[in-house]
Amino acid sequence: MTNQVYNFSAGPAVLPKEVLRQAAGEMLDWHGSGMSVMEMSHRGPEFISIYKQAEADLRELLAVPGNYKILFMQGGGLGENAIIPMNLAGCCAQPATIDFIHTGSWSGKSAKEARRYAHANVAASSEASGFTGVPPQSSWNLTPGAAYLHICTNETIDGVEYNFVPEIDPKVPIVADMSSHILSRQIDVSKYGVIFAGAQKNIGPAGLTLVIVRDDLLEDALPICPSAFHFKTVAEHESMYNTPPTYAIYIAGLVFAHLKKLGGVAAMEKINIEKARLLYAALDADDFYQNRVSHEFRSRMNVPFFLRDESLNEQFLAGAKARGLLQLKGHKSVGGMRASIYNAMPLEGVQALVDYLNEFAGR
Q1: Is 177 tagged catalytic?
Q2: Does 156 carry a binding-site annotation?
Q3: Which family is it part of (predicted)?
Q4: Which residue of 2, 114, 178, 198 has the lowest C-beta tally within 10 Å?
């Protein structure tokens, strides 16, 4: 077993080593406070300073406009599948209609959960093609006056990533689940009404969920929305209405500062393009491996692939583990393999995987 390990898990995922070293050094005593961040009151001056810096750094990294609130919440992506409709489906006549573009497992889960609170219209789906891309916008059957349009801009399981921002009625907000590619590429936040992301892929440990919501959408909650998940309430209390996931916010803040030192999101996007190019080139070299996603919609973050001879799957995974290439088994719902190459995965890790892919294929 090699001493060098590269973790390709889809989440909870690899974190920057520099961040982990800093957190380890501050574990028992944060900045001379005599306390670990885990022990701090979320209302104390020490943690408030951590929170405010994290919020400011994230706003800078994503160029979040001033008319958007950044919320640090709990519940993960699955929780937001309920929290979002409870916050936005009170905007129009009841029952409200929510449009969904079904491009894989996560957008499908979002539509299923939303049906508890509103009518969910699947305006387009790529299920018939095996989720190999995003249906052309000209085929979308959108609802006039919908509460919002929900898209998953990067499907973690299926490896499908949007390469465009939908152009729809500006009165209908776009809600984007960006859990598995936030901070990996530049985005125009102003094109969306709500962006949400579980932290455990590209930001930090599990337990934290980021929500970026436009101010004018804070008044549209259903009466049944719990106060702890009501965007307006959370915003008014600066994410401190209840005890937030303090340590996860602290780690996220370290990651944000780390990304700024590396040159921000634009610099990370260039690296991510190169990592994805390198990996897909190895998978496409011959028919030993197969990625089934249309080239224009291939994810830069989550790369599912299959061996031509799937009887070799266990041998492939055992050999990868022996070389320190971990967590390459695909999601149980689709099988095969999956390499998640988030921001914290170095180019050297992708090269090590490519070398193994070539070796195993006998190239």
Answers
A1: yes
A2: yes
A3: Belongs to the class-V pyridoxal-phosphate-dependent aminotransferase family. SerC subfamily.
A4: 2
69 is known as an active-site residue = no
Does a structural domain hold residue 202?
A: yes
CATH of the domain at 270: 3.90.1150.10
From 69, 106, 220, 232, active-site residue? 106
Say whether 43 counts as a known binding-site residue: yes
What residue spans of the chain are helical by DSSP H? 17-25, 45-61, 76-88, 105-114, 231-236, 246-262, 264-283, 313-322, 347-361
How far the first Cα of the chain sits from its last, in Å, is: 23
Give me the count of residues in the chain. Answer: 363
Is 323 flagged in the annotation as binding? Answer: no
Report pTM.
Answer: 0.96
**Residue matched to tokens 């011959």:** 286
Catalytic choice (99, 158, 177, 220) = 177
Asked, as a colleague might, if the bond just before 226 is cis with ω within 30 of 0, I would say no
| Spatial CA neighbour of 126 closest among 153, 160, 98 | 160
Give the pLDDT confidence of 134-191 residue by residue, as tens digits: 999 999 999 999 999 999 999 999 999 999 999 999 999 999 999 999 999 999 999 9
Amino acid at 222: L
Which of 204, 232, 260 terminates a domain? The answer is: 260
Alpha-carbon gap, residue 144 to 162, rounded angstroms = 23
Higher pLDDT, 91 or 78: 78
140 is catalytic: no
How does DSSP assign 65-104, residue by residue? -TTEEEEEE-SHHHHHHHHHHHHHTTSSSSSPEEEEEE-S
User: Binding site annotation covers 81?
Assistant: no
Asked whether residue 163 is marked as a ligand-binding residue, the answer is: no
Question: Residue 341: what pLDDT?
Answer: 98
